[in-house]
Structure formats: structure tokens, C-alpha cells
Design brief:
Layout: H1 15-23, H2 41-63, H3 71-83, H4 87-93, H5 101-120, H6 125-144, H7 148-157, H8 167-172, H9 174-180, H10 186-191, E1 194-198, H11 203-207, E2 212-214, E3 217-221, H12 225-246, H13 248-251, H14 255-263, H15 286-292, H16 296-308, H17 313-326, H18 330-341, H19 347-353, H20 355-361, H21 376-381, H22 393-396, H23 399-408, H24 413-424, H25 428-440, H26 451-468, H27 495-509
Antiparallel strand pairs: 1-3, 2-3
Helix pairs in contact: 1-5, 2-3, 2-5, 2-6, 4-5, 5-14, 6-12, 23-24, 24-25
């Protein structure tokens, strides 16, 4: 039987693909020209949050003290990108060489999202520094993954003229090259390409003594060539941020964009911790749960409420939304706050001044908005006064007060110092991570970004231990449920709630406060006793 090979049909590229190739010719770009196409507001938000997720992955890798571009660092970046479902960026970082339409779309999303965040992060010097640091990390990572041919293509596209030294030029400075190129044999050094640039273009290499200097010029080997390009990119990025800052007034003429641009840095990009129907946490469990399963911010709110029988408006709002997120039903939340508040005020005052706020937090009053519990970043960024009860204790408490609180919770002096050191350095979420690890005697494999995430991780750890020990987990406590990631902006949706709370609280504070009743709550109650309790 004869087989006839059919000629392969050549697939013609569509005009859209050709256009994408012209606009986005390479995985690595200097972002010199902003995109001009029209996009929907929804895509605008999606692209911004998608890139923010990525930049936070780079930030998290640095906070874990992983050496930049080490194998461990790269493994962490790759695993987190996959875990977050950032397929487009995975394509950019691990391209196969062939360019498909999906690769071109990834480049498009990369470029558009960069310019969106460039505008959003141009608002202040602090935001600019954060954005620049993360973008530089991503740029260096992408560039380090390029092959020699891809680097050459990048230089040609961006019209960058960098020519390696000739053998004759290398011989003139070979002794200096040998001395400055650490960890390489003479034979390998002879095979390396070297570039001659002004020393100001590679200050990081000069600082680390990783290049040979002569007459104001630095001789850089090919493995460190990224420093030359990164310096050029950083200069262009910083200039671009200045241009974006000057254009902010025009950008904010569109009210639809204002909330996105202003709130992007504090927006939460993880799981949506809404209440699960059919699963609830009884308020009788809160005392026990607060000891291990509440992060410090919520444990503090709980203790203040139990001891003083009152929370100021922002503390009450922060705590109410957290309780809603872990599964406390509205009726139970009302009963819980009513029992506490009526120890220092009459029932009528509570019903008129506070019950409405709680129902509003659950989306049962006013505009019926489904409010989300506050993320760590949102809590950290809140302004906190001397007598306020909200905010992040790792930020708001002075070192002495923080150490005293941690010691009262039974942490050893060594662990107290570890947690407090993170807080003192401004690493509030790392302090919370370490606090979790000490309280639960375990190691975290992910950073905590949300108080309700803390609660679920705690329940997962304790539930796992109960199963290993053969003891059934407490059925009254809500089970940990996996949910899909919901990347919605959480800024701006609770403005009405905050305003109502603040207005009513101001009215209440004009009246004479009742005398504080001493708390009878047992701080030393063992959480393990929950199994023997009957509700």
C-alpha cells in the first residue's frame, strides 16, 4: 500500500496576530510607549489586580529572606505564580521559543497592566519606591531567563548598541578581569564576553566589587550584563513615574477610575471571605477561638469588647466584618454585641445606636451591600488614634506594650523578641506570620494576607492534629472550605458603612459614658476544653 504525504497547509496569520507581533515583539520590554487601545473598565481593574498579585509575589519572596535569583527564590516565584493562576505571566517567564497568539496576548496584558499601575503608583514617593523595587525585580528575573539569541533580539528591538570586547581589548585588561571575576577559572573567563561601560551604569556591580574598573569604565562579564540593561530600565521607569504623576489630575477627571487608582495598593487580591450558608460559628465558641484562631488584631478587639463591653466605631466595624467572615450569623452577632453593650448601657440605647450598624455590616440595612471583611493591608493602612481599638497591633503598639501583650499570651522571651523585631522594622505581616507559627507550633508555607485567612489556617492546623490523634473535630466550629479566588476591588464599597458608624458614634460620645464593668472572662481558658463543652 502506498502512502502519499499531503503537503502541510500553511496557516496564514490573521491581521490581529500580526498587529500584536508589531506592538509587542518581545517578552522583555522597557515599556517606553504606552498602549493606545481602548479597554473596558472591567478589564482595566482585572489587569491592575492581576499585576498587583504578581508584584506581591516578588515582595513576599524578598520578605522570606530568599536570595534574589537563587534556585530557591525562583522555585518560590514559580510555585506562587502557578498557585495564583497567573498563566499569562507564567508564559512570559517560561517561554518555549515559539510565539503563539496566547503568548502575544500575555505580552499585551503585561504592557497594559504596567502602565495602569505606573499611574496608580505615581501618587507618592513611597508608592513609587515600592513599585520601582518590584518592577526591577521582575525585569531582572525576566531578563535572566533569556537565551543569548533572545538577548540579541532585545538589544536590536530597543536599538541598544552594546558590543563585546575584542580579544585584543580583553588581553589589554586580562589581569583585572581575572581578579574581578570571582569563582571562575582563567580558561572560563577567556570564553566569557565582556562589555565596557561607564561605571555609573552599573553602580550595583561597583558596590559589590563584581567588575573591573579602569579610568572610569567598568568591564562587565556577560553573566552580569543584566545590570547594564536594568540600570537603563530603572532610569526610564523613574522618569515615566514622574510623567505619570504630572498627568494624575487629568486621569482623575474620570470618576470611574479614581477609586481604582487610589485604592489599588491597599486592595486585597485573595480569597473572598464571605459567609458560607449552612455553616456557622456559635458565639459561645468565640472566647476559645480567640486564643489561637484569631489574629492579634481580632483577639485584641475581642478582649477589649469582653473587658470594657464596648468598641469604638472603627474597631466595631473591623471586628463585626471579621465575625461575619468566619461564620457568625447575624442573629448571633446581634445577641453577642447586645449582651456585652447592655452591661454598660440600656437596651433601648443599644437598639437605637448600634444594632443598625451591625445589620448594615451584614448587608441587611441601607444599600444592602455585601461588605467584605478587611484585609491585612487595609487594616494596616488605617489611621488609628490613641484611644482607638482598630488597626494592626503590630503597628499601633509601641515595642514595650507589644512585648508585654505577647508575654501575657505565654510566648517565651525568645519568641517575643522575634515577633517584636519584625514589627519594629515595619514588617507587620511577617510579625503576624511568626506569631501564628509560635502559637500553633508549626511552619507556614504561605504568608498571611487576611485575618480570615489566619482563622482558616488555624482551624486547618488544629483540625489536622485532631484527626491524627483520633479525636473528632468540634462540629460546632465551621469547617475550612476551599473557595475560588475572587479578585475584586474591596476599596470604596464600605464608605457608607464607615460614615454611618462614625456619625452615630460621635452622637453617642456626647453622652456620659457608663462606668466600665470588670470583665469576668477567663483568659486562661484552655481551647482544648471545647470538645467537652455543650452548647
Amino acid at each position: 500500500m502506498d502512502f502519499i504525504r499531503k503537503p502541510r497547509v500553511k496557516v496564514e496569520k490573521t491581521s490581529a496576530v500580526v498587529n500584536l507581533e508589531q506592538l509587542y515583539p518581545h517578552n522583555v520590554t522597557l515599556y517606553r510607549l504606552p498602549p493606545t487601545e481602548d479597554i473596558t473598565l472591567q478589564e482595566f481593574e482585572d489587569l491592575a489586580l492581576e499585576r498587583l498579585k504578581l508584584l506581591r509575589i516578588f515582595e513576599q519572596a524578598g520578605s522570606r529572606n530568599l536570595r534574589f535569583l537563587s534556585d530557591e527564590w525562583k522555585e518560590h516565584i514559580t510555585s506562587e505564580i502557578n498557585r495564583e493562576g497567573l498563566k499569562g505571566y507564567a508564559r512570559l517567564f517560561h517561554n518555549s521559543g515559539s510565539v503563539k497568539e496566547s503568548d502575544l496576548q500575555a505580552r499585551r496584558r503585561d504592557t497594559i497592566s504596567h502602565f495602569i499601575l505606573r499611574v496608580a503608583y505615581s501618587r507618592s514617593q513611597d508608592l513609587q519606591r515600592w513599585f520601582t523595587a518590584r518592577e526591577m525585580e521582575m525585569f531582572r528575573y525576566k531578563f535572566s531567563l533569556l537565551t543569548a539569541s533572545q538577548v540579541k533580539e532585545f538589544l536590536e528591538i530597543n536599538k541598544l548598541d552594546y558590543t563585546p570586547l575584542t580579544e585584543e581589548q580583553k588581553n589589554e585588561v586580562k589581569d583585572g578581569l581575572y581578579e574581578s571575576t570571582m569563582g571562575q577559572s582563567a580558561s572560563k573567563i577567556e570564553l566569557l564576553d565582556f562589555y565596557k561601560v561607564h561605571f555609573t551604569e552599573v553602580l550595583d556591580l561597583v558596590k559589590g566589587r563584581r567588575c573591573f574598573l579602569k579610568n572610569g569604565f567598568a568591564y562587565v562579564n556577560s553573566s552580569d550584563f543584566v545590570s547594564i540593561i536594568a540600570t537603563k530600565y530603572q532610569s526610564e521607569l523613574e522618569r515615566g513615574l514622574q510623567v505619570a504623576q504630572r498627568g494624575l489630575p487629568e486621569s482623575e477627571n474620570d470618576e470611574r477610575l479614581v477609586s481604582v487608582l487610589k485604592g489599588i495598593h491597599t486592595s486585597y487580591t485573595g480569597k473572598d471571605y464571605s459567609i458560607d450558608k449552612g455553616e456557622s460559628v456559635p458565639i459561645e465558641c468565640l472566647d476559645q477561638l480567640s486564643i489561637k484562631s484569631f489574629p492579634l488584631c481580632m483577639r485584641s478587639c475581642h478582649e477589649i469588647l469582653r473587658s470594657k463591653h464596648h468598641l469604638k466605631h472603627f474597631g466595631r466595624l473591623q471586628y463585626t466584618l471579621f465575625l461575619k467572615g468566619i461564620g457568625v450569623l447575624l442573629e448571633d452577632a446581634l445577641r453577642f454585641f447586645r449582651e456585652e453593650f447592655t452591661k454598660t448601657m440600656d437596651l433601648e440605647r443599644f437598639e437605637k445606636g448600634y444594632a443598625y450598624n451591625i445589620r448594615h455590616s451584614y448587608g441587611k440595612e441601607g444599600s444592602m451591600v455585601k461588605y467584605s471583611p478587611f484585609s491585612c493591608m487595609k487594616i494596616i493602612m488605617q489611621a488609628v488614634g490613641p484611644q482607638d481599638t482598630h488597626g494592626c497591633p503590630f503597628k499601633t503598639l509601641d515595642p514595650v506594650a507589644l512585648k508585654s501583650k505577647l508575654t501575657s499570651y505565654g510566648l517565651s522571651p525568645m519568641h517575643v523578641q522575634e515577633v517584636a523585631t519584625f514589627a519594629t522594622k515595619g514588617h507587620y505581616q511577617l510579625a503576624c506570620d511568626r506569631y501564628f507559627e509560635v502559637i500553633h507550633d508549626t511552619k507556614l508555607d504561605q504568608g498571611i494576607q487576611h485575618p480570615n485567612q489566619y482563622f482558616e489556617l488555624s482551624q486547618a492546623v488544629m483540625g489536622s492534629r485532631e484527626q491524627k490523634g483520633g479525636t473528632p473535630a468540634n462540629k460546632n466550629v465551621r469547617k475550612v472550605v476551599k473557595k475560588e479566588v475572587n479578585s475584586t476591588l474591596l476599596e470604596g464599597d464600605d464608605d457608607e458603612l464607615w460614615n454611618i458608624a462614625e456619625t452615630q458614634e460621635n452622637e453617642m460620645t456626647q453622652k456620659k459614658a457608663a462606668e466600665t464593668v470588670k470583665s469576668e472572662w477567663d483568659d486562661d481558658f484552655d481551647i482544648s476544653q471545647v470538645e467537652s463543652m455543650e452548647f
